[in-house]
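Appendix B. Chain record.
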Amino acid sequence: MKCAVIGAGAWGTALASLLADNGHDTTIWCLEPDVAESIMHSSANPRFLSGATLNKTLRATTDKATALEGARVVLLAAPSHVLREVVSHARAWAEPGATAVVATKGIERHTCALMTEVVEQELHGHAVVALSGPSFAAEVANRMPTAVVAASAYAEAATLVQQTFSAPHLRVYSSDDVIGVELGGALKNVMAVAAGMSDGLGLGLNTRAALITRGLAEIMRLGLAMGAHPQTFAGLAGLGDLVLTCTGMLSRNRQVGLEIGKGATLPEVLAGRETVAEGVVTAESALELATQRGVEMPIVEAVHRVLFEHQPARTALVELMSRELRGERD
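Structure tokens predicted for this chain:
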């Protein structure tokens, strides 16, 4: 079928190439003209997905109308802080009845909306599916075995995405727990920043394991308060994505935390970076969402203090360890 991908960062590019591998007529919209030119003429995106050879049938354009014309499946992979603007601009050319697939992981700043909620608000009348799970773009592009989840309130839409994206190296599971899948995908980035800080401080594997485990408890606490299914957090979009992002060398969010743990400031870490570390943005919106819901999230609070209130990372971790003792399931 005809597929459109909006956003030519690493993840959008990897998924666009996969769709083309699956035989779908796929066009990717690129903000940067040099990226579109490179994909069209070299089947590569060295700017955002270096070293990957893309499917030669994949087309690229800087014109949203061209990308969206006739597309039955529209994959949205723009960064969370610009997703609403990008979708709003694309709305005029989206085909009636097209299924929107949201590959962006995050929580919108100020509105605290999940990414599927942003898309639903801007694309009225379209079935929306969240696509999440433990998946580094470079490994998907290099066709390494990966498993993800397609979650939607519309079972037919989730099944369509499952069938469209599944490949010999990509197994897609379906789910109806959109809130759980989205929160797992968004909040694990904040936890990965925390894990990177710990690693940068040289605090060892015990500390990292504690952060991952207690991070999962925080994610579940907020998720259950918002109506998510607890089992989701033991799955691919929960524990799976959390472990990958907190430990993997390809994790941008862990890398940001690692550099801060070694003494760099946030502006120094972000200077000159073209790729987005969603955990930085999500640390603000997650804290705001937790406050609205009356949910305690001490690791998120600690990351926020380090990133935006200039608290030393070591001090923040010491404060986490010295909190009042409690039961594990409290």
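Further analysis of this model is presented in Appendix C.
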